[in-house]
Every structure is written in C-alpha cells, then in structure tokens.
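Hi U.,

Before I forget, here's the chain from the pilot set. I'm dumping it here mostly so it's searchable later in email.
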Amino acid sequence: MQKKSLIALLLLSLSSAALAEDVAVNGQQVSLAANKTPINTPANPAAVAQIPAGHKFAVPGSFTVAVAALNSPPLTVFSDDNKTLLGSEVDIARLVADSLGLKLNIVPTSWEDWPLGVASGKYNAAITNVTVTKDRKQLFDFATYRKDSLGFYVKTSSPITSLSKTEDIAGLHIIVGSGTNQEAILLAEGGAHRGNGEERQRAGAANQHRAQRRDQKR
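Structure:
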C-alpha cells in the first residue's frame, strides 16, 4: 500500500565528533580505508516492477535518501574528504537504489527535517535510525533492517550499576532526545505511575518530566 512515500526505510543516531581517515568508536580507532569502496548489487527486476507507473522521484532517475548529517559511526560517518558519507545506512541506501535500477542521491539532513522531507516528496526515503512507532506508521511506510534496542548508559565511574525497573530511575536526571521515542517512553512510564500511592515512583515521574533534552535523535 503506497502512502506518502514510495519507500520509507526508517529507524536515533549516536553522535560523534569523529572525522578523517580514522574515527574513534567505543574508544578505539577504526580505519575508514576499507569502507571507501562502494558495495553494489544488480537491479532486481521484481523490485523494479513494483515501482508504480509514472511515479515521480524527487530527482528523476535517482533514489533520494535522507541520512543523518552528523558523524554517527557505524551508521553514517564522513570520509577524510569531509564530503563523502560512509556507513551502514549509506550502504543500505545504495543497495536499495541499485535494486531499483536507480542512481543514489544521498542528502545529509537534520533529525527535524526528515519527516516533512519524506512527506513532501523532497526525499524518497529516510534511512536515519528512526524507531517504528504507531503514530509514525500512520504517516509513513516502514521497512525495518535491524533490531532496535534501547538502554541507559552512565559514566564508568558512576555508582549506578543496574537499572532494571521503573523504580530504579526515581530521582535521576536522564538526558533524552527532544521528540524522540525514548522521551515518549520515559514520559509514559512516569504517567503510568502517577497516583498509585508510591511516593518514590511519583518523584521519578516528576524527574522524568524535567529530564534534560538533547536535540539529537530518535
């Protein structure tokens, strides 16, 4: 069923300041040399046949894909020329374009831009680490390509060693991305415990509503 986009491959990129030939991933230097050769695949006649007759691509003859503009290894990262984007999401976009018999047009964009861009036809798809939610499914078609796992992280020197239930986050200041699925989950958890007579949980809910917001992702 075609909605506002032909293909929406959507699924919070992790921010990194890495650049140039080597990038730091989890504290280790990783060479980009092996990633500079594009991976390709032949056109898939069955996939090409699924393109509706007369479909207007954002750029005729090209598959235009929005990806994260920030260096977010291994999802997206700029090569040493500071122009060429590499990464798993770029590779996926290229393979889809190849399968459809189209050229690839990669557009680095902000998190705030992709929804309007896909809905308006500016992009044919967004491959930028977007979590599938019921609300988003009302507007976009999704094709998931990896497991989306969420969790907390703290400094290695933190006294916190485990967060396994809602009560464990009571009184904590938690950073979440503005407008992301993570923010929605925390707010929902807080609302579910309001009025249940447990002071500690109410305190946790209040702190969740005051959570610092990091304008990054998903």
